């Protein structure tokens, strides 16, 4: 899926996790399907166990059945490229954010028109998170502002601005009224959505924080950073419980790490984290030790579409 995948002809690529996969006597197979977008894919999320939703530079939001490789439906309502897509897993609704300074609510089983729109930022929307019951969303922007929205009415409930807080990503903490935020000011913040106030600030990192994710149990979070030549270019595991301390760092990329996610249980015998980078690599890490499972693949991830490699499901 994406502009730079145009030469794919339903090829199948095999990769081996050296030491780990071989010892278990199995080889994993990755299948890549026909394009869902006419330009690079910027963001992807899992709507359910069969369907993912992606947003791209072509201004389109696409619902895609990854099991069959079929595009189910396309949604058009933004005037500029899509920056983020988000949803609550298992729901019929999903959201998109764009360079047109807005966010939009869509429904899979409805028509292809926007259900609700959320205008209000002065610059590109770069963060989008949905609360556990899909009743509210939070958006963040390069205008240093976060906004809480009522999904049903489209009303902006609260707005908070912090100088130099250029938002890069937002992620809701499961079963909590809290969400996580990364920023170009190198800070990772926990926000209380009830008053839209900062509840906790992790120690400032040395590089821009580009992305974050929260473990399904809500106990840990991972963030990743920009960098070059191996300086920076890392992901960091944090404890979200009482101590809220740094637990582990994952170092091995040589350019900016663009995305980091906790892998679902069942994909690995041990808890694992995946990262993607502008160095054209996706790496899988032992969550607790920081050891990398070395992967060998024929296909390179496109720089601009590397976030799309990390979809859950």
Task: Outline the fold blueprint.
Layout: E1 12-15, H1 20-23, E2 28-31, E3 41-46, E4 51-56, E5 60-65, E6 70-76, E7 82-86, E8 93-98, E9 102-107, E10 116-119, E11 125-130, E12 136-141, E13 145-150, E14 156-161, E15 167-172, E16 178-183, E17 188-192, E18 197-201, E19 209-214, E20 220-225, E21 227-228, E22 231-232, E23 234-239, E24 246-251, E25 257-262, E26 272-277, E27 282-286, E28 292-293
Antiparallel strand pairs: 1-2, 3-4, 4-5, 5-6, 7-8, 8-9, 9-10, 11-12, 12-13, 13-14, 15-16, 16-17, 17-18, 19-20, 20-23, 21-22, 23-24, 25-26, 26-27, 27-28
| CATH topology (level 3) name | Methylamine Dehydrogenase, Chain H
CATH homologous superfamily title: YVTN repeat-like/Quinoprotein amine dehydrogenase
Main β-sheet, in a few words? 4 strands, antiparallel
Low-pLDDT windows of residues: 1-25, 295-313
| Span of the ends, CA to CA | 15 Å
Outline type: globular
Percentage of residues in DSSP E strands:
over 45%
Sequence of strands across the biggest β-sheet:
3-4-5-6
- Please provide the ordered H/E string of secondary-structure elements: EHEEEEEEEEEEEEEEEEEEEEEEEEEEE
Number of helices: 1
CATH class: Mainly Beta
**Gyration radius from CA atoms, angstroms:** 19 Å
Instruction: Tell me the number of strands.
Output: 28
| Total discrete domains | 1
Give the mean pLDDT: 85
CATH architecture: 7 Propeller
Structure classification: mainly beta
